[in-house]
Amino acid sequence: MNIFIKKIKEKIDLTKSQEKYLSSVIKTKIYLKNDFFIKPTQTCSMIGYIDKGLVRVFNINPLGVETTNWLANDNELLTEIFSFISQEPSLEHIQCIEETTFSYISYQDFQEVYKKIPEMHIYTKLINEDLLIDVKKYILSNIHLSAEERYEQLLKTRPKLIQKTPLKYIASFLGITDSTLSRVRRKILTS
């Protein structure tokens, strides 16, 4: 079963005909390592799930410093949500850290899906709630948790991500320097 359909069925029930219709509009795309899913000024036209791979969402400030805003890997939702919903240009870069296979529905097809499967509005509401919760947890952890606690939380909740992601991106995602991350990791390993 396609990962996108599987994820939809975790949130809402689908009839066989709805599932068949969705299968007809879901496409698959393979991105090579370092390929961009989207860059600033481009409008996001896809929403879907990573079948296998790893991506990084980041911004570059006026001084050229990159900040990792999010990391996503296997079975996780991928889109630039602001750009996808508003159909305005993205403000972020989304780049593949490794070869990534992505199952998606185009923006245009998604609008048709809403008409043919009204329950997809419920699915969208539920995934948007999940995204909002994840973002809020991330913001609050950066405010209330120490660097060590943030790393331990990431290690506990997303261990595969830590195994696959270069440490410089993990450090940036956690809002710490590479050297702080090295100290935190050393401390955890020796305790």
What this model shows, in words?
There is one protein chain. A hairpin with a 5-residue loop joins β4 and β5 (66-73). With 191 residues, this protein is α+β, with helices and mostly antiparallel strands. The model has no long low-confidence stretch (mean pLDDT 94). It has helices at residues 3-11, 16-25, 81-86, 107-116, 120-144, 147-157, 159-164, 167-174, 178-190, and strands at residues 27-31, 36-38, 46-52, 54-60, 66-73, 77-78, 93-96, 100-106. The longest helix is centred in the C-terminal third of the chain and has 25 residues, at 120-144. α6 (147-157) packs across α9. The protein is globular and about 55 Å long.
Secondary-structure map with pairings?
Layout: H1 3-11, H2 16-25, E1 27-31, E2 36-38, E3 46-52, E4 54-60, E5 66-73, E6 77-78, H3 81-86, E7 93-96, E8 100-106, H4 107-116, H5 120-144, H6 147-157, H7 159-164, H8 167-174, H9 178-190
Antiparallel strand pairs: 1-8, 2-7, 3-6, 3-8, 4-5, 4-7
Helix pairs in contact: 6-9
Order of helices and strands: HHEEEEEEHEEHHHHHH
Q: Could you give the distance between the termini?
A: 43 Å
Largest sheet: 4 strands, antiparallel
Strands side by side in the biggest sheet: 1-8-3-6
Low-confidence stretches: none
Q: Give the proportion of residues in helices.
A: 40-55%
Number of helices: 9
Whole-number mean pLDDT: 94
How much is the radius of gyration in Å?
Answer: 18 Å
Query: So what's the overall shape?
Result: globular
Number of strands: 8
What is the SS-derived class? alpha+beta
Instruction: Tell me the fraction of residues in β-strands, as a range.
Output: 15-25%
